[in-house]
Request: fold
Amino acid sequence: MDLIFNWIEGLSPFQQSILGSMVFAFSSWLLQKVVKKAKSSGTAFLEAYSEIDVHKHVLHKEYIRSGNIQLASYGATVAILLSARWVMLGILILVFFFGINSLLQANWLYVAAAWFTFNCMLEARNWLKDSSDAGTISHVPEETVSKIYESLRPNSKKGLEQAEKS
Reply:
């Protein structure tokens, strides 16, 4: 093992970065193969991922690759929304661990920055979550809900009248 570490230390920084990239690429490829094999084995844990694969297949086959521009636009929008959710989750995890690392190293400015960034990312993630259930706005006064809902609802008479006046 020491022989390997000594050999790596003898490499130039450029060669070390190439070696690190190769190891990362190989481990990512290997992890994808293991996950694919686990999905096909029928475990209950990865059953949800199998369902996600079917959703992606249907989305791409029936919507994105359809000849209808409206269906393709709708499918692409759904795909972008769902991928944005995963990106947001990844960024949240990254910022969280950055904050923990800064806390352990007593970098208080970075801790504060990570805390503010994490809260901003949580708010952005809340915009991506499905909030169509009435329970998500049950704490808001009814008059506020009615006012905003009437101005934003599609095909609303007030919305159409305001658009005509503009």
Summary: The mean pLDDT is 77.
